[in-house]
Amino acid sequence: MSALDSHDQTGEVQRATAAGEDDLRTLFGESTAIFASFSGPTHVLGSANPAFMTSIGQDRARPGLALADVLPEPAGQEFLALVDQVHRTGESCTSRDVRIVLGNGPHAREAFFDLTCEPRRDRSGDVTGVRVIGVETTQVKHAQRLMAEHRALLEQIARQAPLADVLDGMARSIEELVPQELFVSVLLADPDGLHLRHGAAPSLPDFYNEAIDGIATGEGVGSCGTAAHRREPVVVADIATDPFWDDFRHLADQAGLGACWSTPILAGDGTLLGTFALYHRTPRVPQDTDLALIQVFTGTAALAIERHHSDEAKRAAEARAEAAREELAKAVEAEQKLRAEAEERAAAAAELATRMRAAAATQARTPRPEQCELGGTAGCTEPAEIKVADSWGDAAWGCSAHVEQALIHVRSVFIASEELGGLAAYLSR
């Protein structure tokens, strides 16, 4: 074969290859599937469709750059290793959930791809590069993670975990798993629905949480106060210009917040339970995925708060029942004590009456003296007319004046003269 023929064949191969690449670019040009073509052992990016450029980033996915320069981050090595393997072995390879982290620091974005890598060959069959076809599965992956976290939250609620733990865990899981940087806040409504209290906001500054703790519900009171008042979602895409934030704009500026979307958390009967809010650092409107996330986790928060209120009501009812049981036990104990004391008093009275009857019977046989025996040391010359006795068995005769004094001043003294009523008169006096 002449050199001219060889040159012509090489040109045909190149033209055929270019035509094939043009066909693939046309096929994947407007697709959400990604397509990219790499050449040589360093995998120089030759061509790619807009979906690839958008996924990787227009500023880094530039034709002519080696793949190691396109994805310099350590988390891009899995992609690089996959392309290396296909170029080295000449065998196609399919891999799922290939993880790439694009960028660094707070602006880093985690992405996942399902990829099929195929070798590109020249006419002689030698591998000249690698063709990559795939789809970005980042949203699916994040949705799977969010649903897993959601199931875990439901299990926590079922286990009656403390409300603060459930809400804090929910906020952290959303903040960690959602691709964009955001901050979650849950405020809890007072029983009268007129104020909102701090529930959970693990990533917002303490000064901000303290400042909004206890804010009133009402029209124009930020995003959350307004959402609670209206009982409907309130989207503030730009805190810097929205009049709802006139009284709180300085706090938002200090905390570095640019947007706040708040949704009321309502019980099944429509009672206000609180608000669920997503904050962003820059002005932003919610997308369909954001609205779906808000709906899912607002419902989860409602379930957790309602369960908490139910548990609190149950505990309060149990505490009231226990207090009532304790009061009843005290009342029964007091009644038993009073009854015992009454029985003791009755027994003592019966014993006293028995002694008095015995004393009366004994003293009834005592002969009557002529003069009063109750005059003391001074004596009394009045005739002895009435006989008195006490429960100890002592008895004496006296005149009516001294007997009356004895009856008044000595409580256990009674008239022992049967003709004057005797013991019966004393007991019934």
UniProtKB/TrEMBL annotation:
Positions the record marks as coiled coil are 314-352
Sorted UniProt keywords: Coiled coil
Does the UniProt entry include the keyword Cell membrane? no
Q: Where is the GAF domain?
A: 149-315
Q: Which SMART domains match?
A: GAF
Instruction: Answer yes or no on keyword Calcium.
Output: no
Q: State the protein's name.
A: Diguanylate cyclase
What is the originating organism of this protein?
A: Lentzea guizhouensis
